[in-house]
Amino acid sequence: MRFQSGFVARAVRVAMETRAIERPFLVQEVLAPAGWSDARIEAWLDWGDSLSPPPSVAGGWLNGAPDAWAGRLAAKGLAEGVFADTKAAGAFAAELAATMQLGLATPVGHAATAGVVDLADPSAAARLSAHRADRTTQRLARQSAEALTDALCAVADAVDRCEGARGDCADPMRNPALGAPPPPPGAAGRPTPTSCAPSTVSVPA
Fold it and tell me: What is the DSSP string of 17-29?
């Protein structure tokens, strides 16, 4: 496969800076695009931590995770005959990593689990359609789970804010907040999945 693109040349112009990012047990200095938020960098670092084996933290932007992932994917393609030689595989890895640095692409996982699809194969279209349908199903499932979590958090918040008797607070007929529509996303006072921890709600008697 001959791979030609201009993402690497564009990525060179991306302003980079060293950022202090809070991790679970330490504050880590990470090289990342200057325009990225701390939350976005944290999400990428979490993804990098999921790589197996983990990338070296000796250097590279985002601790070398994008380059390591792209390199492993290119190595898989080289082993399966997708690329003619190591030079072509290296060019692919560099261009792929550049798309992530430019914010144009994001890995959906930490491993290349799908087989190589030969676009000249008559079954290629059906395989790609099935893959897209599977990804769509996974995305909709995540969205449904998030919506359910928001709804449960709203119920827990309504009960928690109630100042009546314990039984009345959990009764939709006696607690008007349980029957009210939830506030829109981003509205003040709306509970979020990160702030809604499963616990026993204490309601004044």
Answer: EEEEEE-SSSEEE
